[in-house]
Amino acid sequence: MGHRRQEADLIIGSSVSMPALVAAGKVNRNSLVVLCKTGIGIVSAKGLDVSVRSVEDFKRVLLNAKAIVYADPSRGGAAGIHVAKVIEQLGLTDQIKPKVRLAAGGDITEVTLSLGPTALGMTQISEIADKPQAELVGRLPKELQNYTEFMAGVTINTTQLAGANALLRFFKTHKVSAVIRAKGMEGFASSGGSE
Questions:
Q1: Which helix (H) or strand (E) holds 10?
Q2: Residue closest to 96 by CA, chosen among 111, 109, 83
Q3: One domain, residues 23 and 74
Q4: Which of 3, 12, 139, 152 shows the smallest number of beta carbons within 10 Å?
Q5: Taking the model in full, what pTM does it have?
Q6: How many CB atoms lie within 10 A of CB 129?
Q7: Which of 113, 135, 105, 103 is nearest to 66 (CA)?
């Protein structure tokens, strides 16, 4: 039996990856819709008392942590690259180097929890939501924050244009925006519908 190759009709990706798909002729530039954005948060085991209201608070928290986990910047993840840059800008690279643990992009929360109750992880807030033992204990201060936008776009060779466009419209409803907010992201719902 031969397998029929399936083609995507709609792609969801980051604001880092989608322009490359447009440039490669895979996604229609005019169909791009920004769905949401997520910032970088600080995760730890439930019950750890951490207060990050300023850059000085953030520096203190990093210096006091037993272990610090973030995505390996060499793998290209936006959050890991940004966190490494912030640590360098704050002049803390050498001081915290012995306690830094680099992880893959999607498992920062799990690695942080495995290191015990005084470990801190830094990753996109959406990666922290819905993990029962984890707690979002803070966010990077606004002066240091970085947001990643996620967008959707219809592929150039879609065979289901009406369905793809209907899904794009659905993504912009208040119902979807409420779910996006519940998952730790900020939505961009249109004001036009209350579906």
A1: strand 10-14
A2: 83
A3: no
A4: 3
A5: 0.79
A6: 17
A7: 113
pLDDT digit string, tens, across residues 34-89: 999 999 999 998 877 788 889 999 999 999 999 999 999 988 778 899 999 999 99
- 130 and 51 belong to one structural domain: yes
pLDDT digits (tens, 9 = 90+) for 101-121: 999 877 899 999 999 888 999
Question: Domain check: are 133 and 46 in the same one?
Answer: yes
What is the b/e burial string over 137-158, where b = at least 16 CB atoms within 10 angstroms of the residue's CB?
Answer: bbbbbeebebbbbbbbbbbeeb
By CB neighbour count within 10 A (0-12 exposed, 13-18 middle, 19+ buried), where does 167 fall?
middle
d(CA 95, CA 114): 23
CATH code of residue 134 = 3.40.190.10
22 lies in the same domain as 44: no
- Cα–Cα distance for residue pair 141/48, rounded to 1 Å: 19
The answer to whether residue 195 sits within a structural domain is no
Residue 53: beta bridge partners?
Answer: none
- How far apart CA 144 and CA 86 sit, in angstroms, is 7
Residues 181 and 121 in one domain: no
* CA–CA distance, 189 with 177 (Å, rounded to integer): 6
